[in-house]
Amino acid sequence: MSKQKIQSLNEEIDGLKQEVSSLKLLASRLSEAASHSQDKETSWIFAMEGNLDGVWDWNAITNQVFFSSRWKEMLGFTDEEISSSLEEWDKRLHPDDRDKVYQDLNDHLEGKTPFYHNEHRLLCKDGTYLWILDRGKIFSWSETGEPQRIVGTHTDIHMRKVAELENQRLVLELSEALEKVNLLSGFLPICASCKNIRDDKGYWNKIESYISEHSEAEFSHAICPSCTQKLYPGLDLNTKNEKGD
């Protein structure tokens, strides 16, 4: 067989492989769509992907979860990179958010709340965390009355949450600054003789030191007219410079 025929055959094989791969992907998507299109009870939630929300469908008995393509995309993953295990979500929870997430989720599973609702951070593929709004509801129960199927959505709220946290930080800084200012507007024990101020620990400090610690004021030293006359009685403050006006 000539080299030209071998090359042509290899090209045909590569083309067939690509077609097979495309058909497998198409079959998978059609199968996924078919499995959910028959479920009229939750058809509305799968339409949420049109609003750029991710969708999840959790079997609480088997811990298998359907994660929609948008759900995975929000975290920077492709369909093939995320399995159908609950661990895919659990292992990406931010440590500081974990307790509150499971508290809110268990409250709904135990019938204490009509819906599951929580804002938390999930780890993305690039190592950053994304703030998401997670909402869900029980749609079916097992024969023994245990929650079996819980369906919900993920909404990207990262920009809104970052702005909210920044506002909270600024409000806190302002409150702390006002508290420091208030310290100077209350009762200050000051010595009638040397004018030193007693701090909250009982120590006496110069008034300059106290004010510097409790405000951002700076001092420049000068002598007032009354003290000038006491310290320099022979100095005539009204005397004008002969070279001046």
Explain briefly what this protein structure is.
With about 240 residues, this protein is an alpha+beta fold. The protein is built from eight helices and seven strands, in the order ααββαααβββαββαα. The protein has helices at about 5-35, 45, 70-75, 85-90, 100-110, 160-185, 205-215, 225-230, and strands spanning about 55-60, 65, 115-125, 130-140, 145-155, 195-200, 205.
Overall SS class: alpha+beta
CATH architecture of the largest domain: 2-Layer Sandwich
Strands, total number: 7
Average residue pLDDT: 77
The largest beta-sheet arranges its strands as 2-1-5-4-3
Using the CA coordinates, give the radius of gyration. Answer: 36 Å
How far the N terminus sits from the C terminus, by CA atoms, comes to 115 Å
Task: Please outline the helices and strands.
Blueprint: H1 3-37, H2 43-46, E1 54-59, E2 64-67, H3 69-74, H4 87-90, H5 98-109, E3 116-123, E4 129-141, E5 147-156, H6 158-183, E6 197-198, E7 204-205, H7 207-214, H8 225-231
Antiparallel strand pairs: 1-2, 1-5, 3-4, 4-5, 6-7
Structural notes for this entry:
This protein has 245 residues and is α+β, with helices and mostly antiparallel strands. It folds into three domains: 1-38; 40-183, PAS domain (Beta-Lactamase, 2-Layer Sandwich), CATH 3.30.450.20; 188-235, no CATH class. Helices cover 42% and strands 18% of the residues. It has eight helices and seven strands, in the order ααββαααβββαββαα. The protein has helices at residues 3-37, 43-46, 69-74, 87-90, 98-109, 158-183, 207-214, 225-231, and strands at residues 54-59, 64-67, 116-123, 129-141, 147-156, 197-198, 204-205. It has a five-stranded antiparallel β-sheet, sandwiched between helices. A two-stranded antiparallel sheet has the order 6-7. A hairpin with a 4-residue loop joins β1 (54-59) and β2. The longest helix is centred in the first third of the chain and has 35 residues, at 3-37. The protein is elongated, with a radius of gyration of 36 Å. 12% of the residues are buried.
